[in-house]
Amino acid sequence: MTDYTTHINKKNFQTDLLTWYNQVKRDLPFRKTLNPYYILVSEVMSQQTQITAVVPYYNRFIKQFPTTKDLAGANEEKLLKAWEGLGYYSRARNLQVSAQMIEDLGNFPTTYEEILKLKGVGPYTAGAVASIAFNEPAPAVDGNVFRVISRLGAIFDDIAKAKTRKLFEEIVSELICHYYPGDFNQSLIELGALICTPKSPKCLECPIQEYCLAYAQGIDDQLPVKTKPVRQKRIKYVVGIIENERGEWFIKKRPSTGLLANFYEFKQVEYEAGEPDEVLIGHLAKEGYGIQETKSLGFSTHVFSHRIWEMESYYVKVDASGVKLNEDGQWVKPLEMGDYSLAVAHQRIVEKIL
Question: Which tens digits make up the pLDDT trace of 321-346?
Answer without folding.
Answer: 989 998 899 999 999 998 899 998 99
